[in-house]
Design brief:
Elements: H1 7-36, H2 42-63, H3 67-74, H4 77-102, H5 106-127, H6 134-152, H7 158-176, H8 182-203, H9 208-214, H10 219-243, H11 246-252, H12 255-266, H13 273-300
Helix pairs in contact: 1-10, 1-12, 1-13, 2-4, 2-8, 2-9, 2-10, 3-8, 4-7, 4-8, 5-6, 5-7, 5-11, 5-12, 6-13, 7-10, 8-10
Length: about 300
């Protein structure tokens, strides 16, 4: 039986829940941005995304008066190394995600982020000693049953889906176990990715990346806005990761792929009986999991 929460733990849980849900709702609608950028090669989108995320991070550092914390963290090689690893993980995840959306595989990304919570539960149990209540284990079983149904009708999506799930779960594990503030960690991660991204965006001689920004219409505006749209949910995610159990954080993530799932249908991808059944089972699981957290918070108060 899982232990009751203290009042302080309940406060951290509420903070984490609000931050996590906000991040996942933003991520849920993000395919719309990348769908509008379908004419831009995926690597170019990722490069410009990094280029415009760094200035946003630096603005947030200034607003939060976090320069001392940023400099202090940069002087600690152990922390910097961990953030290099997390940067490579999130950069890989971004590239896989954008490529899938640009090539019309929105439901594959939805499947990947449906699998992700189960990977989070496994990582939290194996590496962090997290304990789930019997209600939460029941929710895991229901969600696993739903995903099994979906896999049965979507084997072609499996490679992309598993890659997205594993890279983002490992990213969440690294951020949870790296004791840095949310904005500090994201800023350093973006600094790690920036040189390669800037080279691709500005230094390539093929002209594809540069022409992406020079294109007419909404393309330059969308690419610039990708910096803010990238930074805000990642900051919220880092806050959630520091305040929630990894398994809880993973279950909240069902919010994003459900929104993505619906967007994929609106964009014309096929909806069949298996996917509908998976959708229903996963939301039952999510409702049970969140209800158990709410019940334990109420007892703590």
């Amino acid at each position: 039986m899982a232990p009751r929460m203290t009042a302080n733990a309940a406060h951290h849980t509420r903070t984490g829940l609000i931050a996590g849900l906000s991040a996942y709702i933003i991520w849920g609608f993000m395919p719309i941005l990348f769908h509008l950028l379908h004419a831009v090669p995926p690597l170019d989108v990722v490069a410009w995304r990094v280029v415009f995320t760094l200035p946003v991070c630096l603005v947030f550092v200034s607003i939060s008066k976090g320069w001392n914390d940023l400099v202090t963290t940069l002087r600690q090689p152990r922390l910097v190394l961990r953030l290099v690893v997390s940067a490579l993980l999130v950069g890989t995840n971004w590239t896989l995600y954008v490529a899938a959306v640009v090539h019309g595989h929105v439901l594959a990304t939805s499947l990947g982020y449906y699998i992700n919570p189960l990977v989070n539960v496994a990582l939290g149990t194996l590496f962090l000693g997290e304990r789930l209540s019997w209600r939460q284990w029941t929710a895991v079983a229901i969600a696993a049953a739903g995903i099994t149904l979906l896999l049965g009708g979507a084997i072609a999506m499996l490679g992309t889906a598993l890659s997205l799930a594993v890279t983002f779960s490992l990213y969440g594990l690294m951020r949870k176990t790296t004791p840095v503030k949310a904005i500090t960690g994201l800023t350093i991660e973006t600094m790690v990715l920036y040189p390669l991204a800037a080279f691709w965006a500005y230094g390539t001689t093929q002209g594809a990346a540069v022409s992406a920004m020079g294109g007419g219409g909404l393309t330059p505006v969308l690419l610039v806005s990708s910096g803010l749209i990238t930074a805000v949910p990642l900051i919220l995610f880092a806050v959630a990761a520091r305040n929630l159990a990894l398994s809880t954080l993973g279950f909240l993530q069902f919010t994003a792929p459900t929104i993505v799932f619906l967007i994929g249908i609106v964009l014309g991808e096929t909806l069949d009986t298996l996917r509908v059944a998976c959708f229903v089972l996963i939301w039952i699981a999510l409702a049970l999991f969140v209800w158990d957290i709410w019940r334990r918070n109420r007892l703590a108060r």
